[in-house]
Amino acid sequence: MGKQMVMSVMSKDRPGIVADITGVIYQLQGDLADLNQSVLCDYFTMILIATFDDSVTPEDVVAGFSHIQSETKLEVVVKEMDTPMEVAKAKRVKETYVLTAQGKNKSGLVHRIGLFCCQQGINILDLATTLSGDQYTMILQLDLSRVKSVDTIRTSLTGYAEESGLTVVLQHEDIFKATSEISLF
Amino acid sequence: MLRSDHILATVEMIQKENLDVRAVTMGINLLDCRGGDVRETCRRVEEKIGTVAARFVATCDQVSQKYGIPVVNKRISVTPIAFVGAGFDRHGFVELALALDRAAAAVGIDILGGFSAQVEKGMTATDREYIASIPEALARTEKICASINIASSQKGINMDALALIGQTVKDLAEITKEQSGFGAAKFVVFCNQPGDNPFMAGAIHGLEEADLVLNVGVSGPGVIARALERLIHTKGRDNLGLDDIAEEIKQTTFRVTRCGELIGRKVSEELGIEFGVVDLSLAPTPTVGDSVGEILQILGVDVVGAPGSTAILAMLNDAVKKGGIFASKAVGGLSGAFIPVMEDAVLAEAVGSGALCLEKLEAMTCVCSVGLDMIPVPGSVDADTISAIIADEMALGMINNKTTAVRLIPVPGKEAGELVSFGGLFGASPIMPVRNVGKSSRFIAWGGRIPAPLHSFKN
User: Fold this and answer.
1) B69 contact A CB<8A
2) Is A107 helix (H, G, I), strand (E, B) or coil?
3) Which chain B residues have a beta carbon less than 8 Å from that of A138?
4) How many CB pairs under 8 A join A and B?
5) Nearest chain A alpha carbon to B256
6) H or E stretch covering B37
7) Which of A130, A151, A166, A175 to substitute to test the interface with B, most B CBs within 10 Å?
8) Whole-angstrom distance, CA of residue B200 vs CA of residue B77
9) Which domains, from first to last, does chain A contain?
10) Residue ranges of chain B with pLDDT lower than 70?
11) What is the ipTM of this complex?
């Protein structure tokens, strides 16, 4: 199936970055499998997975990116994937839970919730935070498939919430799908 | 991809607004439990319920824990017992009630409904024995609820049964007078009783149903009330019209219903039992903030019972149905706003202040589900007056093609204005005055039937 590479790109945001990046992959005859892009406070970041011919090296891809003519410099990391996988067949996590934590902003909030997840064997699949006034909101999508009892996690979370002064709610992803999407069943 | 604002809106609903699934009710067919005598039938009934519902409560708890949404009541409804006990005398029916009560306790459910009969057109000898057994059966059991369907839009009103029922309600209250007539709170009289209603006291497993089925009752007056308060606070009262309010109710009901359906379907999958319906009802509880009356106040009447109350209730009931029907694959049961006086602190308060009278409540039941529900009346009100109040409510259901019901508690030894409290979900209220007592006996004495209305002739 050729050589699968994962690429990470960061830059100051401007119009045309997606066209530039995908143009490089296209010229190298790469097949783009999946990507995820986000802009935060005027900074652009993107992670991509693409398959290239065996002859293409990560260095070739980096070189392609470096030839992009732009006022903003692209910071690029390219790696060949250790264990190539078919994106379409990638395993979906079965036990995805959504954790929301809201409270007064202070330093170390994300670190502490990260640490909590780490100690409980929970993998964070997605994390988004917003600051509105002095209220900080974290929304995490978590993989609880390694966790034996959700109840135990909830109990520990109660302790964590008290200690950190945050309002924390853990719910199964299905609840949000049910309340926010039209077709579930 | 889940959006943050959707996630936060749902979290708000679950955490701050006490979203729950009010009832998961397992319907069980008992027609195959008939034995050669009362004892054998009772044994088979206990055995069947014990077998099919063995994992019911544990499964509800497990799904509830996984999704973090409480399932408040786990209940069972059974085939109307007058069919199961055909040919039994009143003592046989009492034995059946005791067997059902033991079965309910054994599987750990809250309440079991279906100690019932359907007599909207005529009564068999068995039906009469069943009716005669009701006071003792309910007095001697803890978890059993009884109901009887005495009217329908298709068949009219069985006035012979109605006359008996007025006295039954009185006897029920009298036999449980030590508990302020609590027995009458476990008995409800219907017109157009649905066979798939998960709410008590009127849940039955209709004859039209499969062997086992799981119905879910979603509720959430508190969720609707908080959503409306938030909308009014955010947008400002002057920038909103009643159509905006109706839309908010619809959207909120959609989300509440989806949660109920999700939980119900998961329990049903785990148990391997067919999923029946979601009943989209706003069922209040005595808890502060979980009141239908409060919604009426938010929407603009200072007290429930003031002019405008009926119109608001009509809009609320309709918006709840519209939001819920799209959210669920199968909707059934009662599906509407309940106004049970004792179970709704705001309604009870309105009775206490004299703002809400029986006649206004009757008018309000024309536009909502389900009827004159959980109303304590003076113990001195005679049986014929109670029958006549029931007759009026049955007529509303019959003519309007809707379910109506009556659950009156004539509290022995107490008069209007005195407080009665049953505690827990059954709540408390001052006793509602009844006007024109003792003036309907000639009407009740007719007996016979009120014929089926014109619009029943559709064949």
Assistant:
1) yes
2) coil
3) none
4) 69
5) A179
6) none
7) A175
8) 9
9) 3-87 (3.30.70.260), 96-180 (3.30.70.260)
10) 1-2
11) 0.72
